[in-house]
Structure prediction request, 145 residues.
Amino acid sequence: MFGKPSLLTRITVAKMVGFVFGLAGFFAAPAFGVDDIKLRLAILFWYTTVGAFIGVSGVMTRHPLLNMKFPWWLTGPAIGGWMNFVLVLFAWDVFAPMMAGGAFWGFTSPWWVVLEGLVVGFVIAGLATRFGGEGPQTVQDRGYS
Prediction:
């Protein structure tokens, strides 16, 4: 069940790695002036969810509309970057004051969070592919039913 290739393994690894990134954000947030426990929990759950999306997306290795290969090193960053782009759009009022002081190593624009999503997505997709495989073979029937 947790062999390779396996969709279950892929999703589990991706969610665990996302959870680790979320935990890092949860515990690092107070250092950047975020004391709201709801926001800190949202960071934790956000990256776990990003991991789940990246894990599930590994089944498709070919883009259906563009009819081109869509390998893990493109899929993961695309999902991570897009999800953080949406996060910044919805939570601009939270990120703008937090970033304005240059608390993130001198980066003052909330749009840098999109770059963070690209990097996090790359790491999540890489580890999910390493341990769970990718492509249609991850969903082949192995007789577990």
Observations:
- The chain has a mean pLDDT of 88.
- The CA atoms of residues 99 and 109 lie 6 Å apart.
